[in-house]
Every structure is written in structure tokens, then in C-alpha cells.
Amino acid sequence: AAAAEAGAVDSKPDAPKEQRLPAAPTPAKVAADKPQPAPAPVVEDKPAPAVQTPKPAPTSAQPAAAPKKAAAAPAAKPAAAQANETHKSSSTIRVDHERLDHLMNLIGELIINRNRYTLIARSLEGGDNINISEVAQSLSETTYAMARISDDLQDTIMKVRMVPVSSVFSRFPRLVRDLSRKSGKEVDLIMEGEETELDKSVVEVIGDPLVHLIRNSVDHGIEPEDVRIAAGKPAKGKVTLRAFHKGNSVAIEIEDDGKGIDPDKMREVAIRKGIVTPEEAAQLDDREAMELIFAPGFSSAEKITDISGRGVGMDVVRTNIKNLKGSVSTNSEVGKGTRFTLSLPLTLAIIDALMVNVSGQMYAIPLDAVSETTKIEAERLTDVKGRKAVTLRGEVLGIVELSEMLGLPHTEPLPEVLSVVVIHDNERRLGLVVDQLLERQEIVIKPLGAYLGDLKGISGATIMGDGSVILILDPHEIYLMSTSKASSIVPGADQTKQQPCAVAAKQ
Q: Helix 172-183 and helix 207-216: axis angle, to 10°?
């Protein structure tokens, strides 16, 4: 033990950053203080550290390498520990015990129904004296009970996954204070609907898009104090962040009382940055001109600052929200302010869908995006700017063939009566002509694999009861494909991307 202490003391000056060396003498000292309890084990355990301790000391040829390794080890440990802590914090969720009790009761009912199915199977295997009507009735009752339990189980699991958006909103007051100080503008942040609940997987992802939108509102939207006073506005700007339920989805609005988005300036900046040509810009209406703010690389900032002007931001917002099966809409009035609305699904797992048949293949349309289904006589269709339209209840409704949008073969002669699914993208509506309207169904969303890549107009797939794979349409992208100028300018580009839809559906 004394030799171990001496070796450890001698080695300290040569390796001051070594973390494992000071640990060796400590048990030796304990053994020296308590020689009677276990002197022999200490002597047997410690020769290895005592022999290893002198080894770094004689290697004088590598004095610099040893400290580097010693320094790297402690640095790696905290980083790994932090990663583990971060992973733990993001993978846990707080659940009310009443919901867990309810889940436990449902599992009990599930087991009872499973036993009922077992009894029915035994009665069918049992013998010749089988009353088919009684077995069928018992089977129907058990199936109905199973459907009720599975629905209740699904609702409870959804509630367990729900967390309030206040966990995301709570970070923004400090962000607005920092942005206000950097930009020299007085800004108030008003938050509403913080108790609104969203799926945990959605809440974890919406933080970055909201940061981009709030930075945009403070930097681009809110004017300097002197400009606001000259325009008759309060000197202090106002940014409102609100969340609320909207049908079967959740809407999050970011609204400011700033200068608004000028469509003419959007066209001018887009032409200057080469995003659109002057001819294309002239054909854009005001709404489409405001949508240019989401183009990649678009920025209307005159100078680059740490707040904005880097050409990154709004396109990231649209991409992230699209990945969540949501959509972004813009509503702005020059001189009054701007409002961005994010529409997000309550959950990413299970949705209601309307099943339709197009060119002999089945597709699913999310029911949230369906306004209505109707039958329209083909002779009522008229041409408006080269596109088909119909007047439905006093409103002009654009009509497109879904088979054409997906690059599928057309039905040869159009039937006299068309089956139309009217979808809505925020306030905009579009009629999709399909071959056949099928039933409404609850479907489980499965992501498309890397083999198929990103298919235009397709948001995912689902597996039916018979094992077949059905593609799920993305209503927002379908609307953009029907109205985009790019598809009319370069029709072949989109069609080449859309052809795999048919291949994927057949597979």
C-alpha cells in the first residue's frame, strides 16, 4: 500500500489532468487506516494500479499526447451524458393517472372479449349439433363489443399523447424581448389559447416554424416607432400568438399590426432575385404574389442582420408544416398587418378518410379536407381561362380530373354525370372528378419509404384489411398542382414525377 501511494504521488506531476490516478491511492489509504478488516485483499487488488502508474511517467517522449487523451476523455463524457439527458427529456411524457386507470380497464375488457372469441371457436370445433344462427349472433355481439373497445382505446391513447401548446409558447416572451431590444422596436406579445392540446410529436416540431414567423413579424412587419406614430398607430407594436381548435385540426395564428405585405413589392423582389420572370409576375394575382414569400431564397430585407435577410426562413416554415401534414396560409392588408395561419392535424397516426376510385385504383382523401361530395352533369362544365369550372350554389368552382393530376390513364369518354369531391385548402375550394365514390374509413398513416421518394400530391400510404396498400392524397399539394403556373409551363416535369404514383399503387 505504501508503495502504491508513493507511485501515485510521483506520477501526479507528470499527468496532472489524469482523472483515474487520484482514485488509486484513495482505497489504499482506506486500507492503511483499517489494516485489520481486509489488508490482504487491498494488497492483491492494488498491484495492478501500482504497476500501471509508473508506465506513463517514464514515457517522456510523449509528454503532449498523454494530456490530450486525458483531456479528451472528460470532455466526451459530459457530452454523452447531455445527449442522454436530452433524449430522455424528449422521449418522456406526463400522463394523468386517471387515463392510465381507464386504459387498464379497457385492456381488461379486451381480454374478456378475446376469451369470448376462444369459446366461439371451440363451439364451432365441438361437434355436429351447432346452431349457426346462435353462433353468428354471438360472433356479431363480440365483434361489436370489440369495435367499441378499440374505439375507446384509440381515443384514450390519443388523449395520452396530447400535450398543451403552452410548452412551446412559453419560450417566445423572451424571444420577443430579445428581438425588440436588437431591433430597437417596442413590441408586446399577446398569447391566447395556450391550453389547446396537440399531439406530442407535432408540438416538438412546430417550435422552429413559429420562431421564424415571430422573427419575421418583429423584423419585417412591425414598423419603427416614428413611422407608426406618423401612420396614426400606437408607438408600441403588437404581435398576437393564438391557438384554437378548428374542426378536427388545430390552428395556430401569428398576427401583427405592422405594415402588411405589399404584393407589388413581392413581385419586384421575386423578379430581382430571379424567382419568376416579369411575364409570370404580371399574371400573378395579389394572393399568389403574397405566396412568393415562401419561395426558397426569397427575402425582402435590404440588409443582412442576425434577425433576418439571410434568405432562409419562410420556405423552411412551409416545408416543416408540410411534413406534419399541415398547411400555411397568409392573410395581409397593406398598412393594417399580416396574419399567418398554420393548420395542423390533431394527430399524425390515425385519420378519417374518404375512399375513392380513380382509373381502377383506390385512393384515400383525408376527410378534414373534404367539403362535400356531389354529382354534376358534364354539360354544366364551362371553360374559364383554359380550365374547367362549374357554378355550384352561386359560387364558381374549379374542376380538375384527379387521374390527370396523378398521371393516370383517362377514362375514355367522360360520363354524363360526374362524381366530384370538393376539397378545401383554407378558404379556397377545388372539385376533383373521380370515377367512383366509396365509403368513409378510419386509416392508419404509414410514411412512404426512401425507395419511392417524395411523390407530388401523395402524403403517405395505408394498409387495408385485405393487405393491399392505398396511397393517401395531400389536398394542399393537389390544389397547388392544379393552379401552379409551373405545371402549365413545363408539363413534362411534373408528369415524370407523378408516374410513380401509379406504379406505387399497383405494387
A: 30
Alpha-carbon span 286 to 245, nearest angstrom: 28
Q: Which residues contact 485 (CB under 8 A, 6 or more apart)?
A: 280, 283
Instruction: Supply angle C-alpha 228, 231, 232, rounded to 5.
Output: 90
pTM for the whole structure: 0.62
As a CATH number, domain 165-345 is 3.30.565.10
User: How many alpha carbons fall within 13 Å on the CB side of residue 323?
Assistant: 11
Q: Please give the Cα distance from 298 to 300 (Å, whole number).
A: 7
Under the phi-then-psi rule, with left for phi > 0, alpha for psi from -120 to 50, and beta for the rest, what region is 239?
beta
The span from the CA of 397 to the CA of 479, in Å, is: 12
Sequence-separated (6 or more) residues with CB below 8 Å from residue 222 = 183, 185, 187, 228, 237, 239, 256, 257, 258
Is 332 within 8 Å of 290 (Cβ atoms)?
A: yes
Are 339 and 332 in contact, with CB atoms under 8 Å apart? Answer: yes
Instruction: Measure the CA–CA gap between 256 and 217, rounded to whole angstroms.
Output: 6
pLDDT digit string (tens) for 84-113? Answer: 444 434 577 788 888 889 999 999 999 999
Place of cell 364558381: 396
pLDDT of residue 424: 85
CA distance 379 to 377: 5
- For residues 389 and 475, is the Cβ–Cβ distance under 8 A? no
CATH numeric code, 350-506:
2.40.50.180
Residue where the block lists cell 422573427 = 215
Q: What is the pLDDT of residues 329-371, one digit of tens each?
A: 888 888 889 999 998 887 767 788 999 999 888 999 988 888 8
